[in-house]
Amino acid sequence: MKNLKRISVLTVVLAMTFMLCACSAYSGIESRMKKAGYEVASGESTETKTVTAAVDSMQLDCTVHIFSKKYEGALADVSSFAVVLEFKSNDELEKALNEKIENSATLKGFIQDMEKSSYVNGNCILIPIPIGTLSTPAADILNEMTQAFKG
Asked: What does pTM read for this prediction?
């Protein structure tokens, strides 16, 4: 009987651990972005500060993650950025979006379409900033970003 109780407790603990780990899609996104050659952007860079300020001005309750990857340009390397907004949960994501679009039918339609797109993964939203070069068009960079984001 004691063994059954221990196994039951262990099973519940493992189930809770898996549930808590599964709540955020970000860890998988981060891993795939790094495998695709993206680096977590420095918090001190001008680009990071600009994006963070823009998101802060929208008053969204989320964590901003910025990835960058350099592509070979004609005269110098050019960085493209993938901004990932991580909300605490899928419900928080829905709540934040609904609060921002309450009075706009156009935005409501846009958000519904976006949720079906490659730009939403669990509780995270991708804001791609692809900057193409002669050797790597922006469309190719965008495709690479969304593939890494969605998995």
From this structure: 0.75
